[in-house]
């Protein structure tokens, strides 16, 4: 019988209720990981937990309410996870928001702060809460979900780009700080990932430019060398690699999964 790659490993996934987070959670479960499904949308998290249970591959996941803008929920979720399992081996910082698609000068301070606080500060707070336990056990892998928008500018995406490029800098510094403790930190930069969030952003662009959604979709697909949008499952495969011992000498890396949209 094949030994699953993450058997006896505990993984905390933020934003696990839908999209990329759900795909990551299911992929980890199939490889034997014990899951902590964290996020704001408890019904969606429960749906993911039911999908994991249907796989019949391991224990029932722990569902925790975690709001990146509420420090107490972050601390409570991590404390509950450690109390339940005694360890967190893998942290996937996936939660985030698309933010408003608009020129920088049309954003108000609240809109700027919400995106930065959610996408950048939120990942900092979750990592800060988990890292001491990883240092204590002298092992762990942290995977952040960024975006190619942090490296390849898109029109009207200034605050989102700032938040995601900030993650790249944070991950590289974390990798330096954590290496001697046996803990690795890496980031995945997805391209255009098919799903409701991408549809919402393209709809905003279409509205601003007085174009149809079909026209915007066709233009965006034309930018991608492979001619197709990335799937959440493809991002999940990247997480499996970076979270596993297969990437034991990989840290501080920024892995593009973008269909060739970004190659640096």
Tell me about this structure.
This protein has about 260 residues and is α/β, with parallel strands linked by helices. It folds into 2 domains: about 10-190 and about 230-255, 3-Layer(aba) Sandwich (Rossmann fold), CATH 3.40.50; about 195-230, no CATH class. The protein has helices at about 20-30, 40-55, 70-85, 110-135, 160-180, 195-210, 215-225, 230-245; strands at about 10-15, 35-40, 60-65, 90-95, 140-145, 185-190, 255. Strands 3-2-1-4-5-6-7 form a 7-stranded parallel sheet, sandwiched between helices. The longest helix has 29 residues, at about 110-135. The termini are far apart. The model has no long low-confidence stretch (mean pLDDT about 95).
Produce a short descriptive summary.
By secondary structure, the chain is an alpha/beta fold.
Classified in CATH, the superfamily of the largest domain is NAD(P)-binding Rossmann-like Domain
Question: In the residues, how many domains can be counted?
Answer: 2
What structural category do the secondary elements indicate? alpha/beta
Query: What is the strand tally?
Result: 7
Mean pLDDT: 95
SSE blueprint:
Elements: E1 10-14, H1 19-30, E2 34-39, H2 42-55, E3 62-65, H3 71-85, E4 90-93, H4 109-137, E5 140-145, H5 158-178, E6 183-190, H6 196-208, H7 213-223, H8 232-243, E7 254-257
Parallel strand pairs: 1-2, 1-4, 2-3, 4-5, 5-6, 6-7
